[in-house]
């Protein structure tokens, strides 16, 4: 029986990289019935929102979605589509691996870590208001239930993948109640996993340590805001957002998406590197239990990167998005 998977092509370059990723996944022989639903800027005139209810309904029905980048207006207008998706579907765990890939040169080596970010609360709860004319206030929400849940997710992921250490990242020296609660929950869960090392790191020190010696870290556990920032920092260690996949996982659904934005200036030019989208698809296949297909795709990606014969401009080549996808398919 084929898997029924919601496909959200996205805005800007989204449709191009989504098509490329789907071609590779289909070529790997995984039986998938893609259910394409449109979200983002294109549907606002008709539905009055970038995230119509039919998109949520499709993901709830299928349980898994592969999503291209979506544009959210800055500073005004609509609430972030990504934040809304995560909260509406209770996708409480944001998972962002960062590892060095052969053929992608950076100043770092030996990086192989995973950022696990709480995805539903903190300052991203979006609870804010004006205080008079000249001030505004945002409310930081940290709850015991959400903190215990994401900590247990991080330790379970570490154990499942045979990883050695979980580092909880916080600012409890200043935000003693909110970050203090998150830290206490991480300590409590850590006691249940004596086989996994546990350490604590203040967020500013963590950023310094990551650019000094990222090879020393394995699984990072963070609240929402710090996780958003640190995960981009980690992407920078291994080549940038163009090679950074991501997943948003809950108990009832999972949405896999690249970390980078919609890059509207490149839309329709068939020139953007599809790796972040494809690697998100590989994460999706592993989530489905399709390990053999995921391993084959990764081997093909590594071969194409090592040969350097068919790479897009941002990877040092001159190939188009579709040509690079074709080369990965040929390497399968």
TrEMBL record:
Chain ranges of the Isopropylmalate dehydrogenase-like domain: 4-328
Stated family: Belongs to the isocitrate and isopropylmalate dehydrogenases family.
One example GO MF annotation: isocitrate dehydrogenase (NAD+) activity
Name of the protein: Isocitrate/isopropylmalate dehydrogenase
Any GO BP annotation: tricarboxylic acid cycle
Keywords on record: Oxidoreductase
Top-level lineage group: Bacteria
Keyword Flavoprotein: no
